[in-house]
Specification:
The protein is an all-alpha fold. It is globular, with a radius of gyration of 19 Å. The protein starts with a helix and ends in a 6-residue tail after the last helix.
């Protein structure tokens, strides 16, 4: 039985359908929910994916996209993202996985799926294939798709002291004047996260760009440090 079918069977068994309408309403999702909350979903994924052993990245990507594209319920898409993060997938976080993540970001087009991919998987690719991934994120940051722009801004969220500041600021720059909430929020979030590593640098950046940063971005950036 295909892994996508096994997964749906297990998710359905773990679901509480009475929870589904509220979950769908909270997420403002056109795609319905089964009613599987986060902890049971992770447990199902851990069990279903436990013995998978992919011979290569192509086979792994095929399974991820089969689950993603065939999803009838939002939890299936969450599970596809879980499959991208299994231990066995670590060697596959290379630049050739980016088209898969790009499809998931563009077709997912909402913060719950986009942010999980941007802040976890894209960062892994940036570490493993820095030069081509850096260029890709610069291209995304300048592009028309808002979710790809957001992803480029957030792709270094876990980086801490390894943050490439030139890349971070270059990814923020094209969106500084945007009125889009999700871009303003992403700018503030990325700056706030880096402030954990270098408070003064974030204060300096906010001060230097005070005429272009939105109030939301500024508040988010300085939330824990003041200034």
């Amino acid at each position: 039985m295909p892994i996508a079918d096994i997964l749906l069977k297990e998710l359905t068994a773990a679901a509480d359908p009475s929870r589904a309408p509220a979950m769908q309403a909270y997420m403002k999702s056109a795609m319905p929910f089964l009613g599987v909350s986060a902890a049971p979903l992770r447990a199902v994924c851990k069990r279903v994916f436990a013995n998978l052993d992919y011979p290569d990245a192509v086979a792994w990507r095929d399974d991820v996209l089969a689950i993603w594209r065939g999803a009838e319920f939002r939890e299936q898409r969450y599970a596809a993202i879980e499959l991208t993060g299994t231990r066995g997938a670590r060697p596959f976080q290379r630049i050739d996985a980016l088209p898969m993540y790009e499809e998931m970001i563009v077709t997912g087009a909402w913060w719950d799926v986009v942010d999980a991919i941007a802040t976890q998987r894209l960062w892994q690719i940036l570490r493993n294939d820095s030069a081509p991934m850096r260029q890709a994120m610069l291209d995304w940051a300048r592009g028309e798709n808002m979710w790809k722009r957001r992803s480029a801004i957030l792709c270094q969220l876990p980086a801490k002291g390894a943050t490439d500041l030139d890349l971070l600021y270059a990814c923020i720059e094209p969106s500084l004047d945007s009125r889009e909430f999700f871009l303003r929020k992403a700018i503030g979030w990325a700056l706030r996260q880096y402030a954990r590593t270098d408070t003064e640098e974030v204060r300096r950046y906010v001060s230097a760009h005070e005429n272009r940063l939105s109030g939301l971005s500024r508040r988010e950036a300085l939330k824990r440090i003041g200034g």
